From TrEMBL:
GO terms for cellular component: membrane. InterPro entries: UDP-glycosyltransferase (IPR050271), UDP_glucos_trans (IPR002213), UDP_glycos_trans_CS (IPR035595). The lineage of its organism: Eukaryota, Metazoa, Chordata, Craniata, Vertebrata. It is found in: Membrane. The gene is LOC116488888. It is a single-pass membrane protein. PANTHER family: EG:EG0003.4 PROTEIN-RELATED, UDP-GLUCURONOSYLTRANSFERASE 2A1. Residues 1-27 form the signal peptide. This is UDP-glucuronosyltransferase. Belongs to the UDP-glycosyltransferase family.
Length: 533
């Protein structure tokens, strides 16, 4: 009896101990730094899950935000700050970036020109970004209010800078959520993730992990060129960060303080590469089983019979196409035996076939998860690609800008996609591409293989992302995962100082050896000479 009592006390003690050790999981207080576009859709999924688990979430949002709509009835709170620019300033900039890509897709010859232009546009983006920073950091009232709110963590996408700086000013640990920075400049230089250029393709290079000699040249040049272009504005940020923090520091040093980097890819899509313990790959965290479609849409899908349907979307950033382009596309779609659901906001093309319906918005994930869906024509944004992987749907990629060419290159290498060039695409090209991914079963098989890999994980990507966010809140950081590389200079990191020292030692040894030899030889020579004499 006594033994039993003591064992149950022990159990209780163990339980209390465990609870104390793990600490309160519930009810952290999270601040979110805003971002735009598909980046925001991803962060939103994490926010919803945090709220579902009882945490409270506050989103900082500028009054010119395109994608974040502060609603009073939302489960998250909003802190709105005023920026001195208008919504259309951001819209125009995004349009310019898309146009740059569409009109000057970088080739070997136009590489340099392209990056120069991209550098200019990203400079404009950084000017807007700086105004956002100022609007928060110089707003004493807002900062005092944020400081008083007792946040446990700040979540940020480093494509919109400054979240890190706000976190430091509030003395709160921060976690990054990102797809990539160009050439992974930020991840490599600030996060210290290794990227051997022999088999880790640079972002925007459209290369895979199997590179020929000339492709490896292209890869190394891509890394350095992008580093050069995208680091060119870091100097200004270094000055700004130093001013705000009141001590000499750099943008990169500050960004390197991120506790966890949640990367929005996974090994179903990404090529195997080295990473660090504070990098977690959570691609597809927004994917979910399909929900039923709206009634009218379901009827249309069912009317397709055995041929099934094709889903078509060029994403949330491309608002309209030229008449010519939209007719090329519409004519192609009209020749398919499938029914087509096309997300398209622009003017209805005349060539639109009776098998095609356009929608301002489609429940993309639910459509891709529909058993009658045969193929997905996509611009190749990471979110859409992951929904296709999740549901095992083959792709026809029409990449337009940013990481989209890369994404399609990945899916092509995995045998689940056909790529088309948006600029030169003809009606027949689109018809052929869709027929190929549907008729040739290898595309569907590869898509299903990726889907199986994606689903066969010990913990879902969303749970893993939220686990690490909660971990950082429980432990006030994740310093034990932080590599010591952060304390090294670049020459120490590559051991150049050690190599230089060893090389000098070796050189001195060789020098002494040679001198000795010469001395001996000469002496022997002299003795021999004397003997002769
Ligand atoms: C945001 O607020 C600022 C200052 O009140 C104003 O100048 C700016 O036009 C506003 N922007 C938008 C998009 O409402
Ligand atoms: C998109 O629409 C706007 C107005 O709605 C128009 O000014 C612009 O030229 C259009 N872009 C293209 C590529 O057709
Ligand atoms: C692919 O299938 C479609 C009908 O689904 C047919 O019209 C087309 O000729 C086929 N193409 C090939 C290359 O088999
Ligand atoms: C299907 O596509 C794969 C990959 O492009 C190709 O190797 C194969 O020959 C194709 N099969 C047929 C029957 O066309």
């Amino acid at each position: 009896m006594a033994a039993k009592a003591s064992s149950s006390t022990k159990c209780l003690q163990l339980l209390v101990f465990q609870v104390a050790l793990v600490g309160p999981v519930c009810c952290g207080n999270v601040l979110v730094w805003p971002t735009e576009g598909s980046h925001w859709l991803n962060v939103q999924t994490v926010i919803r899950e945090l709220i579902r688990r009882g945490h409270s979430v506050t989103v900082l949002v500028s009054n010119a935000s395109l994608f974040i709509q502060p609603k009073a009835e939302a489960a998250e709170r909003f802190e709105v700050f005023n920026v001195p620019f208008q919504k259309d300033t951001i819209e125009n900039l995004i349009e310019e970036i898309v146009a740059l890509w569409l009109n000057n897709r970088p080739t070997t010859l136009t590489f340099w020109q392209f990056y120069k232009e991209l550098g200019k546009l990203s400079k404009s983006w950084h000017q807007l970004n700086r105004q956002m920073c100022d609007a928060v950091l110089t707003n004493q009232e807002l900062m005092a209010h944020l400081r008083g709110s007792g946040y446990d963590l700040l979540l940020s996408d480093p494509v919109t800078l400054c979240g890190d700086l706000v976190a430091l000013k509030l003395a709160v640990p921060f976690v990054y959520s990102l797809r990539f920075s160009p050439a992974s400049t930020v991840e490599r230089h600030c996060g210290k993730i290794p990227a051997p250029p022999s088999y880790t393709p640079a972002a925007l290079s459209e290369l895979t992990d199997r590179m020929s000699f000339s492709e490896r040249i292209k890869n190394i040049v891509s890394y350095h060129l992008q580093d050069y272009v995208f680091q060119s504005y870091w100097g200004e940020w270094d000055v700004y960060y130093s001013k705000i923090l009141g001590r000499p520091t750099t943008l990169c040093e500050t960004m390197g303080k991120a506790e966890i980097w949640l990367i929005r890819t996974y090994w179903d899509f990404e090529f195997p590469r080295p990473f660090l313990p504070n990098f977690e790959f959570v691609g597809g965290l927004h994917c979910q089983p399909a929900k039923p479609l709206p009634k009218e849409m379901e009827e249309f899908v069912q009317s397709s019979g055995e041929h099934g349907v094709v889903v078509f979307s060029l994403g949330s950033m491309v608002y309209n196409l030229t008449d010519e382009k939209s007719n090329v596309i519409a004519r192609a779609l009209s020749q398919l035996p499938q029914k087509v659901l096309w997300r398209y906001k622009g003017k209805k093309p005349e060539a639109l076939g009776s098998n095609t319906r356009t929608y301002d918005w489609i429940p993309q994930n639910d459509l891709l998860g529909h058993p009658l869906t045969k193929a997905f024509i996509t611009h190749g944004g990471t979110n859409g690609i992951y929904e296709a992987i999740y549901h095992g749907i083959p792709l026809v990629g029409i990449p337009m800008f940013a990481d989209q060419h890369d994404n399609i290159a990945h899916m092509r290498a995995k045998g689940a996609a056909v790529e088309l060039d948006f600029g030169t695409m003809k009606t027949e090209d689109l018809v052929d591409a869709v027929n190929t991914v549907i008729n040739n079963s290898s595309y569907k098989e590869n898509a299903l293989r990726l889907s199986k890999i994606h689903h066969d994980q010990p913990i879902t990507p969303l749970d893993r992302a939220v686990f690490w966010i909660e971990f950082v809140m429980r432990h006030k950081g994740a310093k034990h995962l932080r590599p010591a590389a952060h304390h090294l200079t670049w020459y120490q990191y590559h051991c150049l100082d050690v190599l230089a020292f060893l090389f000098t030692c070796a050189a001195i040894a060789v020098f002494i050896l040679v001198k000795c030899c010469l001395f001996c030889c000469r002496k022997r020579g002299r003795i021999a000479k004397r003997k002769k004499e």
